[in-house]
Amino acid sequence: MAVMRIGHRTRGSDERPMGSAVITARATATFEPVGRSVAAARAFVRDTLQGWGFPDIIDDAVVLTSELVTNAVVHAGTSAEVLCVRTDSGVRIEVSDRYPERELPLQSPARQFGGIDREGGRGLMLCTALAARWGVEYDSTHKKVWFRLDLDDRPAGTRSAGPALPAAALPLADARVRVAVIQIDGTGHISAWNDDAEHLFGYAAEQVTGKPLADLAAWPHTPGTSTGIAEALRLSRWEGSYGIRGADGRVIPVYASHLRVRDTVGAPSTVCLLVRDAERAVLQSPPRATGGDAGGDRPGSADPFEVFIGSPAPDDLDGLLQRTVERARDMLDGDSAYLLLATDDETELEVRASTGLPSARQRFARVPVEAGTGRYGSARMPSVHDDLNAVPGAVPLLTDTGMRSVVTVPLKVEGRLTGSLGVAAEAPHRYGNEEALRLQFAADRIALAVESARLGELERLRRGSLSFLVEASDLLAGTLDRDQTLALMAQMTVPTLATWCAVYTIADQSSEPELSYVLHEDEDLIDGLKALLIKVAPPDPVPTPGARPWPAPARAAHDAALRTSLRTVGLAGDAEHSPGPGISLTTAAAVGGETVVLPLVARNRVIGMLTLGKPTDDHFRQEILELAEDLSRRAALALDNARLYSERTAISQSLQRSLLPPGLPDVPGVEVDVIYRAAGEGNEVGGDFYDVFPIRDGAYGFAIGDVCGTGPEAAAVTGLARHALRLLAREGFGGPAVLERLNAAILDEGARSRFLTLLYGELRPQEDGSAQLKVVCAGHPLPLRLRQDGTVEPAADPQPLLGVMEDLELYEQTVTLEPGDVLLCVTDGVTERREGSRMLGDDGLADVLTTCTGLTAGAVSARVLRAVERFAAEPPSDDMAILAMRMPEPRDE
């Protein structure tokens, strides 16, 4: 059997799909041709690669698998088999389907499939963009698309050494530097905890041993860019900043160095060394010393510029920027330094790294490139400020920091502004043109590396965002419940996009926004956050797309925290002049950062607002806001669909209730019980109905019927039938005349008419405890009579149904119910209950009824319903109505 193989390969690679790689593991799964299989395939690939320890390629693998499985199960309509193969150099994933007759894509993917704007055919284009190699294989029964993702080589670690420095050049530290030593076993649980760790974080060793480190770590996370704590613990070496939640609930910033080791039996574990973030110099490699000659300060000589950056990981942008500002500060003997990156349009600069400034000086805060007029008003040129006190506000980033002098230089790549680097000191007149030249030379050396790392981070963020939005769309499309949609919106944003979020909804154009859902990453703060937001006027429902700042929560948190502090020291004044209750300082800090509002717009109407917030001094990065905007559009449509579905369900249920009698009359000497069960989710009006009503002179009418189909047309016939029966019966017409006139009324509906099966009868209780019935069964399942001796027999003969023929000749039959007898009337949802090829049928219903001798009418109907439900495992697919009437036995005196 010939096999045709096409694909592409990277330069220098061989033509074999697996090359010389050694296969170390396999995982496979088959997915049926249904829509939910796409999400299941993504979950399978994600779980497999996560289990193999390949987090860096998960996003690319999930995106490619999603496209290829969609082509198989949705467009081709066949089952799909996904095979994951782990090798020593990467991962190969194969997606096979059973539709090999399609045309071979012999052209380039873009030409073959008509470009990226087409609905289908993007799978191979994505393979071209993301995979190291890919290909397509055809045979007579299968088509297989495969792609391979290579793993980046990870060095085991780099050793560095620095020369001896004079005491004045050594970094400052507390008199007692404490280094927490924590050992983590292969499952991520704490196995060792030293005394310094107990002193720094407040936990004794026995309190934390055996617990996951993830329970204590406050890990910074940005989709697609940051390594999670589980991945960091599996790396051979890792160094960076995060937080540890102390015993008092505060998050303590730490600087950590992780080293992966194994014991004598080969079990892996990780040794974590942690110090306070301010003492990171204890663990960080020290900057190299400058040249000792007089020319060492000039560009081009043997000076620190050659080793300005060191050797950070090529994909660690945050580490690269942090090391840059620290080396810049040390090079110019400054007290602080900061680095900002430019946006794509070069109109704003975003704070990405700083040292020596309070609270990381509002990371991701934005400042304009052109801050003002004059020589020093643009970040595109170097500038030196001798004394910031003389020019207040000249550098907004340094306001209220105590810095007096500052030198800033631009970072440029090919003439384009990519960022700005600044060094500041507390003393005035510290810097001049010589320092600006040195810093500019260093900035020129680092600009290309920073831009390359930034573009790499941006690409990973976009890939992670695509995977995030795919998963979010699946989750939002999986429910039509309004409350669940609101919960999903919040849970997808916290903590991935924001620290907390609130969702406001608007019922209609005349309604005010209502706070509908609040979520915080710390569950203990949700109630306080909700109490605060209730007291704040909601944001205006502006339909303009994009995120806009909303300062009201931060102001309210500041004021409330101030009131709380004043009450604590007894300075709040009397209650009459108090502006309102305070909140905890912890809640105020959690809400005191940047807050943005995104409109929820669906079908050209604002239906609510999604509010995202950060803690004190934190800001959102632009990429996160763009991702949140994409999410808000999907969430708005899902929320509006849930609203429409809820409204339709409420209307249908209200209409269904109107088609059924409000209650059952008390019939003297007769037990009457009815059970009605509507099938489905309640958004369709069923065609089954029943009624029991007084006629005249002690006679009662009863009816049970089934209109063909569901929906508005069936509901119209149902309403016509029930009300016409009552009207005609009370006018004195007998059973045949009532049904013949009803038949004529149904036929008069024309195209809207539906055929109707109906059992109608008149019941007249007798003085001897029996009852006389006159029954007409027009195409309906026959009523069954249960005698006291346990025998069951039909109580009527079948006659033509209604709504089909014009001239009907119907007749009524007389039945006498003796004391203890039961008359059971049902719709076809009972008799046509199915389990595979089996059906309950009339005989099965009769068998159930034979077991009901001596039971009350309510017990009979309940037993019948229970038997129907147990007959099959699946829920009923048709409406059911059960009407039971019983003549009780006379009581012994």
TrEMBL record:
- Statement: the UniProt record of this protein carries the keyword Coiled coil: no
What Gene Ontology molecular function terms does this protein carry? phosphatase activity
Gene3D superfamilies the UniProt entry points to: 3.30.450.40, Histidine kinase-like ATPase, C-terminal domain, PAS domain, PPM-type phosphatase domain
Q: Name one GO biological process term.
A: regulation of DNA-templated transcription
**Residue segments, region Disordered:** 284-313
Domain (PAS) ranges? 181-211
Keywords tagged on the record: Hydrolase
The protein's matches in InterPro entries, at most eight in alphabetical order, are given as:
Bact_Sigma-Reg, GAF, GAF-like_dom_sf, HATPase_C_sf, HATPase_dom, PAS, PAS-like_dom_sf, PAS_fold
Q: Which domain of life is it from?
A: Bacteria
Under the heading NCBIfam families, the entry gives:
sensory_box (TIGR00229)
By what name is this protein known?
PAS domain-containing protein
Q: What is the lineage of its organism?
A: Bacteria, Bacillati, Actinomycetota, Actinomycetes, Kitasatosporales
